[in-house]
Prior knowledge:
CATH superfamily of the largest domain in chain A: Winged helix-like DNA-binding domain superfamily/Winged helix DNA-binding domain
Largest interface: A-B, 38 and 38 residues
CATH topology of the largest domain in chain A: Arc Repressor Mutant, subunit A
Number of strands of chain A: 5
CATH class of the largest domain in chain A: Mainly Alpha
Shape of chain A: globular
Oligomer: homodimer
Distance between the termini of chain A: 42 Å
CATH architecture of the largest domain in chain A: Orthogonal Bundle
Amino acid sequence: MQEQADKIVKVLQANGLRVTPQRFAVYANLLGRSDHPRAEQILQDLNQAAPQSSQATVYSSLQALKKVGLVREVLLEEGVCRYDANVDPHHHFRCQGCGEIEDIPWEQLQGIQLGSLRSGLTVGNYEVTVHGWCDRCQTH
Amino acid sequence: MQEQADKIVKVLQANGLRVTPQRFAVYANLLGRSDHPRAEQILQDLNQAAPQSSQATVYSSLQALKKVGLVREVLLEEGVCRYDANVDPHHHFRCQGCGEIEDIPWEQLQGIQLGSLRSGLTVGNYEVTVHGWCDRCQTH
DNA sequence: CTTTGTGCAAACGATTTGCAGGATG
DNA sequence: CATCCTGCAAATCGTTTGCACAAAG
């Protein structure tokens, strides 16, 4: 636990970010969950027991973390921005019933051929979004 | 042109939508462009010469068109909802420089194997989003 | 004539900003 | 001790809503 905390501090510093209790808490919270929360959900989670951070600070922490590449945005619903501390390439599955978002490991969707894209386009990265129904929402 | 207009009227009716000048204009506008505009851009385009529609009506027209499946949303940027009258399955390319979004024909990204998804998930549809740089933005 | 759409303005939710005080390196 | 961060409240952006009037089928 302490070891984990030290590691987070080091990662933040290595990326040129000052380590403040709030920023630490936001990043640690995001690392500890895989449900792609929105800023608001992180805020509530942090302040559940005792006030730890303000709304504006959560937003700015997320921006800072995003800028250095420690978190990324996940955009799968209209007007909703979710965050993910898993920055390794992976795909997403979104349940059309409950809205839950689940990671799909990179290796599980292989065989994509990007070679035939129109010339003139330079590919940086790509990802697949799968829409469907999860276990609990089979009765659509 | 007139032929095209008649066709649009028929499509709207076939989908159970009343044909109003505003709704017609929104759909025709979207059909005539491939740049995935936001609601606001459609509004401005329509009212460029003379007032044709109000903001609220553009939004509600888009909702109605979306509900019957004549247009779809494209979500590739934070907090921004774009619209597309091309509802055939296709993928998207987004330039990280200028933000331009370009369609990628479905056939151009083949070979995706969805078979190995975790059991319990039912696949509805999927799409690939490619991030990169377009012709004009090669100097990143 | 019944139902649905339009336009206006106000309301809304999510995110951003300005600024003064406080903490970090 | 210079720089950057925090917290508050106000501002902003895109979108939605309530309601009275108008138009479509």
